[in-house]
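User: Could you check the structure of this?
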Amino acid sequence: MKLSLGPNPYFWPREQTFDFYRQASEWPVDIVYLGETICSKRRELRTRDWLSLAQQMTEAGKDVVLSSLALIEAESELGALRRLIEDSGLMIEANDLSAVQVCRKSGLAFVAGPTLNIYNHRTLAMLQEDGMVRWVPGVEQGHKQIRELLAACVSEGGVAPELEVVVWGRPALAYSARCFTARAFDVAKDDCGFRCIEYPDGLPLSTREGQALLRINGIQIQGNDIFDLGPELPEVAALGVSVLRVIPQVDGTETMIRRFRDAGASALPRLGARNGYWEGGPGCAAVPMA
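Assistant: Sure, the predicted structure tokens are below.
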């Protein structure tokens, strides 16, 4: 199985971001996703910076995919995506149906990102007609649901797309046009002061009882715990997954990349939290639902 470094969902300072990807260029990863997926106001890196990083990664022997915003709200954001496609000539990860439309009109193949909400085989077939070649299911989609969806696709004469699954990282649970981080500090979204840059792994959110529950990351809500599918790797491989995705974290990403590279399709001891969604239960459940 190939190994991918997913797009960084967090807002890091410019030099920290460049340093991270300088290191990543030497990691044993096959595919690198680049680009801002959360908020277009995060402008530590401009389009030319992402393209420069893409060139560096390509020269390092990586397959580069440019990721779109998960929520495209303005014509300016759509225009920025069009320019990125025109100037790069690279594969796009479409995380919004507007990005799918841009790729379709341009006749470009694309990766269907985890925020496209593909829950039935007819949606999968439609996106394949539009140019989808790889699918990244949402973290809440378990192996049974994915298997049934792919089987239904094949039974109706279709071809299952290349499959990529998140095996390490905090789960993305929700997105909103409003900014959760701005709301947490009681400031307007348009006058947020870029507070999310102060929380390189997201802003922790606890219950009233003090139990860590969620992470606030701009317009995105994540689970607090980092899920680990290491022990489920044989099951992942049996599902036909060809790409394992690791989500960047401020610390330890290289260690996880090398861990999954060394494992291949062999089960690993669990280092992160159990992903209950994978078994068809609640995401943070200690045991799957009966």
